[in-house]
Amino acid sequence: MDPVLEFRSVSKRYEQEGGEDLVALREVSFSVPEGRAIAITGRSGSGKSTLLHLAAGIDVPTAGKVAILGRDLSRLDEGERTRVRRDSVGLVFQFFHLLSHLSVLDNVMLPAWIAGERDRDAEPRARELLARVGLGSRASSPVPKLSGGEMQRVAICRALLRKPRLLLADEPTGNLDDENGRRVMDILLRLGGEEGSALVYVTHSPDLASLADETWRLGSGVLDRP
Fold this sequence. Notes:
By secondary structure, the protein is of the alpha/beta class.
């Protein structure tokens, strides 16, 4: 069975005017099976966000292979990578990226609308997820009425709506206080585990990293695994 996410000797360089190329990742290799939670730590500029962008197919490597469920993303055009991301990947960001003019439920429903699903098919799933994170009674609420922690719980529901095999989270608690950050991380890990998704998340917090099955460290583009 193919791993959900695989990096094989992946390097990423960015050209810079008038200077040497910036090397963001150097020969990174790993695989993440279904149901596994991986935390990635490292200083700012160590390559963490680049790794997540490559994992999501937002960018492609300079060398090496990134595959989701066995599909080599570098062999796909941008439209095909977008479809893989839409159908197989859930993304959670630090700053939520919710639409303030939509209700809580409608924000969760967005991926279904983009994929052309019917409301009657997607809405029960959206309401079920909101209930599982303790926001079932807030489905019709305007997003600006929510706290930061509640907004991130909505963002997690949105990421999980279409049952992605891979969850990617970039500093999902970075905009929250410690108490809300821990609560949100617990929810993300619990729901990801219940759904059987592979989860890769970036965090600066050693405490939150320790909640994962494994913690890896990036430094100067080099991945250090235990």
